[in-house]
Protein 1
Amino acid sequence: MAEKKNRKVWIFAIPLIALLAYFIWDSYSQPSIKDLPGDFEEVAFVRNEQNKGGIIRVYAVTVGDAMNAQYDKCADLFPTNDYGSVTKVFFFDKTKPFPTKLDIEEPHYDLKQYEAINIQKRYGSQK
């Protein structure tokens, strides 16, 4: 009788352990900006504090290989939320000065001191 009970536990436990192992593997194997061509590196981030309106996220990312960089794919990896949120990603040449601090208010960084080589925006869906 104990063998049947033990066997039922293992029949349930083995698939559960396999499923948990898959979830852990999947969560740690997600692509990041470092996996894309272009030698991307996030150097600054700011997000608005209030959650009554849309969430605004602003990122500064340096690019080491601007000729082969996949800006669209890189910007797609940054989060967006629903209900009017916006994610702005500013790309800067790694060999030139770039901001390490951003402001939530536009223009987000000193335009006289830094020059973005590409700007991508992603908007959340309107539900």
Protein 2
Amino acid sequence: MNGRTVVVGYGDAALDVLRHLPLNSRPSAVVVLDVDEVALTGALANGAEVVRGDGRDLCVLQRAGTPFAARVVVAVGDDRDGLLVTAAARSLNRTAIITVAVREPANQELFSRLGADDVFVHARSA
């Protein structure tokens, strides 16, 4: 495991989560995984490495370095997709801290049961 953070989905929710990480846990490197070229361009401009692809795909998560990441941030636009990403990320990395931004408060417990360590309701969607 290294100090790398893999961010699945790069929008407002991901930026909020990254801003709220404690200073002592700031990642040494950030890899952003998204299907949206505009989001990836923004991530590159902010100094992140990028991988284009679907975070629900185990192969794409592996390519982004999920098995060796210290932290995985799941901030996709749909909670159902987020559940799949969370379960897939946990299956690839049992020790990473998985932080999830959810859209529906009622889904917090389900995300925790699937392996998320920290679950936040994204303020703009609450």
Protein 3
Amino acid sequence: MEAIAAVIAVLGTLLGSGITYVFQRRTTAYGEELARRERLRQERIDAYCLYAGALHNYRRMLVYRWFAVHERPGEEDMPSLLREIYRLRSEAHESLFRVQLLTRDPGLEDEARTALDAVTELHGTGLSREELDARRITSKRAIEAFVAAAAHHVGEPPGPGTGRPRALGRRTAA
């Protein structure tokens, strides 16, 4: 009788250890998944902010160039101004690449491209003041539309009450 009790005690201990291991493993995987999601969320926030800022700076410099050409001719060093514009355009493109790498939503990519295209339309110095103003408004709205769309993709950080990840160990479309 004591042997049976000892076997039952050993089996109970093993079963308890096994169940504890399974639950600890699931808890660890859940914590790692939440941490991964939060890192991705933070990277997206950084990329989207950097892109919006790059677009804004590129847009600002294009408008500045228009005024330098039309309202203050000869006062600006145009070659250095053009170099700065091309540098800012390169930064905007680099930031777009980062956005494209971090998003899985084609709609957000389209918003990003639309914003860059709208800003690039300010590039011509042959624009009239009315055309410039219209394109300034269009480009500003395009940047704002990108930021609004991006805000929906970063949402709330994962935390208590946001539910478990769908499948631990599998990639989700975060």
Protein 4
Amino acid sequence: MSDSGEAIQARTREIERMAVEARGEAVSEHGEVRVVAAAGGRIEELDLRMSAFELSGVELGEVIVSTLRTAEEQLDAQLTSAIQAAMGSLGAFAEEEERR
């Protein structure tokens, strides 16, 4: 296999590893709810502080959903940045290979 093929496979494995390991974390505005989200829409952790139980069921649901969305946005931004960095370095590698 060529060096560039090996580099592509290595980058692909790295991106896959990042997607599996990446987590997004968010805490609600007043600290009642903390959420850790993983790729694929999985909720890894959902912590409710005692103050969360002072909210109505509807309010608590809204805070949970909002906090989860923030965690997912943070996760998406983290993955996008990591993938762009991996692809950018792969592009630089490919350009160097072409010059040889």
